[in-house]
Design brief:
The complex is a heterodimer of chains A (about 150) and B (about 250). With about 150 residues, chain A is mostly helical. Chain A has helices at about 10-30, 45-50, 60-65, 70-75, 85-90, 90-95, 105-115, 130-135. In chain A, helix 3 (about 60-65) crosses helix 4 (about 70-75). The termini of chain B are far apart. Classes of the chains: A mainly alpha (about 150), B alpha+beta (about 250).
């Protein structure tokens, strides 16, 4: 076999190439995370990472499960569409453990957040100039937050 | 990933005789860990958001709720509210302000003439997103259910996507040094809860929408009303649908 006599350099080259290919495959396997490309050009476990974030707002259904009386009162009033946590703040901890007592919101600041007159607010939305409207009196003196309009 | 003929036929057989959800759960049931089966099916949803400008009262509840739910650092915003003032003439001189992202509400600024309104802004969860296209490491991506999310473990904090987003919805988290953005409260919506901003919105201005759900009221909302997305000329496939959006809004 004369043809192999001078082929030593070719074999060495082929071996080197083979080693490089193997090294490439090994590194590729080590570097690319599991399942990469299953749903797209990203690591599928990242979806679980985002979903694992803790919940702070319990959601309206959780509130209404224990407070049907408030739900009933609210349903008849102007604030029927509001979620409880829109005013009371995030209460997932309270929903999990009723012993964790929520802090009641400060009424005047809370009401004026939405109902203070503002030229940029849509005209259909009920707004008042708090100082002229109540003269420093707390909103709660006349309006009940869960059923705010008189005679409803 | 390679599949031999036997595995391929077995998988096909499962899908033929079971529903896709049952197939996904089958392996877990056989292993005796039925509770670990994924009950949230990404392929069943295509999330979007509808925002009704005429209902926004600029209370800032969404901004606060978002910050509380997602631990957004002070001075950064995943969602924020802008106040526009468009004078009668010249109507090109539009004034926009957003003090602290609208988190503390807006002090009244009476104007004579013209119009003034609020515009809530957030990630548009574009279906053809520029931020995803520029990411050099595959750390930001579009999910099969239509969200644009960030893989914090892969983000190298290069800020390329922050520049690419035409809506300015991304920021670098000052502690993590990775990019951060709205996830449309993925941790909530995958558990049948509303996103925090929608939960806290008192007027129903912002609403989560599932475009793949035929019973979702979003279809009627999109059909009946005049709908616009932000910067439509950029062809981002934005999925935050605004009702009553003024031409002055950028």
């Amino acid at each position: 076999m004369r043809i192999w006599k001078d082929a030593g350099h070719l074999i060495r080259l082929a071996l080197l190439l083979g080693m490089l290919v193997v090294a490439f495959l090994v590194i590729r396997r080590a570097v690319i995370p599991e399942g990469f490309g299953r749903y797209g050009h990203f690591r599928p476990a990242a979806l679980e990472d985002v979903r694992a974030h803790p919940i702070h707002f319990a959601g309206r259904a959780a509130c209404e499960a224990c407070h049907p009386d408030v739900m009933e009162l609210k349903q008849k009033g102007k604030h029927a569409g509001l979620s409880c946590e829109a005013c009371h703040g995030p209460l997932a901890k309270h929903a999990e453990d009723p012993e964790v007592k929520p802090v009641l919101p400060k009424v005047v600041a809370l009401c004026s957040r939405c109902h203070e007159a503002n030229s940029a607010r849509p005209k259909w939305f009920p707004q008042v100039n708090t100082k002229e409207h109540s003269g420093g009196e707390s909103c709660e003196a006349c309006h009940k937050p869960h059923k705010p309009k008189f005679g409803e | 990933m390679s599949t031999n003929r036997r595995e391929f036929l077995t998988e096909c057989g499962k899908y033929l005789f079971l529903t896709s959800a049952a197939t996904a759960a089958l392996d877990f049931v056989i292993d005796g860990k039925a509770e670990a089966a994924p009950n949230y099916m990404m392929t069943d949803h295509w999330w979007a958001m509808t925002i009704d400008i005429e209902k926004c009262i600029g209370c800032g509840n969404c901004v606060r709720a978002c910050a509380e739910e997602n631990n957004v650092p002070v001075g950064f915003f995943r969602t924020w509210v802008e106040r526009y003032y468009v004078p009668d003439f010249p109507s090109t001189k539009v004034e926009v302000d957003s003090p602290n992202g609208g988190k503390d509400g807006f002090p009244d600024q009476p104007h004579t003439g013209g119009k003034s309104f609020f515009v809530p802004k957030m990630c548009n969860h574009c279906s053809d997103s520029p931020c995803v296209q520029v990411c050099p490491v595959g750390a930001t991506f579009e999910t099969p259910d239509g969200l644009v999310l960030v893989d914090e473990k892969y983000c190298i904090g290069c800020r390329y996507c922050v520049q690419a987003c035409p809506y300015g919805c991304r920021y670098i988290h000052p502690e993590k040094n990775t990019v951060d953005k709205c996830t449309l409260c993925y941790h909530r919506i995958s558990k049948q809860l509303e996103p925090a901003c929608c939960e806290a919105c008192p007027t129903g201005c912002r609403k989560l929408a599932d475009l793949k759900d035929p019973k979702d009221p979003v279809h009627e909302f999109l059909r009946v009303n005049s709908i616009q997305v932000l910067k439509p000329h950029m062809a981002t496939g934005a999925k935050a649908y605004y009702r009553g959006l003024d031409g002055a809004v950028r």
